[in-house]
Design goal:
The complex is a heterodimer of chains A (266) and B (285). With 266 residues, chain A is mainly alpha-helical. Chain A is built from 9 helices and 2 strands, in the order H-H-H-H-E-E-H-H-H-H-H. In chain A, 70% of the residues lie in helices and 3% in strands. Chain B is 38% helix and 22% strand. Chain B contains 11 helices and 10 strands. Classes of the chains: A mainly alpha (266), B alpha/beta (285).
């Protein structure tokens, strides 16, 4: 469980780590939109260079990106198979009897693979360099303008931060319960279907009980400290945009516009 | 020799930045039929140590011998089920393992997993529940609606119903009230004395160690610092203090009397003996 790379924060010291989460979230959103402009291989080449530069700046290792990408490989292989079966345009690459594999099937899959890779590179640049808490502060601030149309910005941010906060706890709890039930003779790996259902039940029920217990404790602790949703709150950590944050935003805007122009020209 | 550790190390998250050596070349033998206390500070490796006893954790290096089984770092062990039935492991706060609809069915869950028929399992469950002081009026109730102390008793009964030869308890009385603690410890002591079970108990409470246990194992930074009989271990209150543990009140009391110049002899192990000695001193002295 400790090896999940996608979306994990890495405590390093880099210029990207120091940037304002709001600027990083905005820049990432712009880049994600830019990825979907059909800007051709030149465009993707530029985007890849930008992403690589960001990863270098954030001091992330290539291995980390690879580990984040790995769960997607299965999906890509699946997609390739579907494309080979469905796409019947472009020159024929190979033929087995009446079954033909067309070039477009491969290029289309490749396009999606490149887009996925770019998306993972950019999102990892955000999630690996931003503490979950800072991320929720950023999300809250970015949602602020929508409060006018009754979007509960603070509540959404609080929900996200609580959910993130409890993921490691629940993983620990799961492992604890698995061990306790294994001590009572449960076999989590093998066994007949009926035994497997029983095994899963012996894990799920205690997990739910403890999750609800934790939720209740947390709600009580928050109330005891005077937390009232919807009431104005001050903040311990006040976000402030600095020069480098504006540079990041400007860079993202320029790249995004360049992609849009490229897509127009092509 | 029911339990022996030979040069056992356990490393968590090996090969990552989070690598942590919880056990560091441990050599240890646990005597059969004794009640052994495992003491040590939080994070010293006690829990890691006891989880090797039913192969929930496997050694990174070295070999663990448990009864007729050998578990070594090199080979992946097979058929762990029989071992898990023979070594009953009660985790800290075991109430979270309750999940069945009724108390009786939850207690019978363990024996059923180890191949008992439903009837046999229910019989064993009833016996175990009686031992832990849960009466028949609770059998058909949901274990989740019991009080904290009752849940603990049901959870421990769930392990006892497996009828293990070796019983390993990780802080079984944490969070119980004094009366509950005393009756639990009495139960474990009876299981040891009357039913001849080998018992290992992880605890921070030196009173319990002093009153109930035969031997003491001190774990420190993943190593075994001491292993000796309870009498030897408590001969000197300073050693407890050195290890950051509060000695039992009787030991502290004797120590204080000695400081005041009373010549209290060695070998006094209970309040009654001490009172008797003081009585004699007052009459004759």
């Amino acid at each position: 469980m400790g090896n999940i790379a996608l979306g994990r924060y890495l405590p390093l010291d880099s210029p990207i780590h120091k940037m304002d989460p709001r600027a990083k979230i905005m820049a990432m959103l712009i880049m994600l939109i830019a990825i979907f402009f059909p800007s051709g291989w030149i465009g993707y080449g530029i985007m890849f260079a930008v992403a690589a530069m960001m990863i270098l700046l954030a001091k992330l290792e290539v291995g980390f990106i690879w580990r984040a990408m790995r769960p997607m490989l299965f999906m890509l292989v699946f997609l390739l198979i579907i494309n080979i079966l469905v796409v019947k345009t472009g020159p024929v690459l190979a033929a087995i009897g009446s079954f033909e594999i067309h070039l477009d099937a491969v290029t289309q899959t490749l396009y999606i693979a490149v887009r996925l890779l770019l998306m993972i590179m950019f999102t990892t640049c955000l999630t690996a360099t931003t503490k979950p808490l800072d991320m929720t502060l950023g999300i809250e601030d970015l949602l602020k303008p929508f409060e006018k149309i009754h979007v509960p910005a603070h509540e959404i941010a609080m929900l996200i931060s609580i959910a993130l906060r409890f993921i490691p706890d629940l993983i620990d709890e799961t492992q604890r319960i698995i061990k306790a039930q294994e001590s009572r003779g449960v076999d989590m790996q093998e066994g007949k279907l009926k035994e497997k259902i029983q095994a899963i039940l012996s894990l799920i029920v205690p997990l739910f009980v403890s999750a609800f217990q934790r939720a209740e404790d947390l709600a009580n602790a928050m109330e005891a400290r005077g937390y009232m949703p919807g009431e104005p709150r001050t903040r311990y950590k006040v976000l402030k945009m600095a020069g480098r944050d504006y540079i990041l935003l400007a860079g993202a805007l320029i790249t995004g516009t360049a992609m849009a122009v490229l897509a127009w020209v092509i | 020799m029911p339990i022996a550790f030979k040069d056992v190390s356990h490393v968590y998250s090996a090969g990552t930045p989070y690598e942590y050596r919880a056990l560091d070349h441990v050599d240890l033998e646990i005597s059969e039929g004794k009640m052994t206390a495992i003491v040590g500070k939080t994070g010293s490796g006690k829990s890691t140590l006891v989880q090797h006893l039913n192969a929930l954790l496997l050694p990174t290096e070295g070999t663990v011998y448990i009864m007729d089984r050998t578990i070594s770092a090199k080979e992946k062990p097979k058929k762990l089920k029989s071992l898990r039935g023979a070594v009953g492991l009660v985790f800290q706060f075991p109430e979270y393992q309750l999940f069945e609809e009724t108390v009786l069915r939850d207690t019978a869950f363990g024996p059923k997993n180890f191949g008992c028929t439903a009837e046999e399992a229910a019989n064993r469950a009833r016996q175990a529940l009686t031992l832990t002081g849960i009466g028949p009026e609770f059998y058909e109730r949901s274990p989740l609606e019991l009080s904290g102390g009752q849940k603990r008793r049901v959870a421990i009964a769930g392990i006892l119903a497996m009828d293990p030869k070796i019983l390993v308890l990780d802080e079984p009385t944490a969070g119980l009230d004094p009366a509950g603690t005393a009756s639990m410890m009495k139960l474990f002591s009876d299981l040891n004395k009357k039913m001849n079970k080998t018992i290992l108990i992880v605890t921070h409470d030196m009173e319990q160690v002093y009153r109930y246990c035969d031997e003491v194992v001190v774990v420190e930074n993943g190593r075994i610092r001491e292993k000796e009989t309870t009498a030897e271990f408590f001969r000197d209150a300073r050693r407890c203090n050195e290890m950051g543990m509060l000695p039992p009140s009787l030991i502290r009391f004797i120590e204080m009397m000695r400081e005041f110049g009373f010549n209290v002899p060695d070998g006094i192990t209970s309040e009654e003996q001490l009172a008797e000695w003081i009585g004699r001193e007052v009459k004759h002295g």
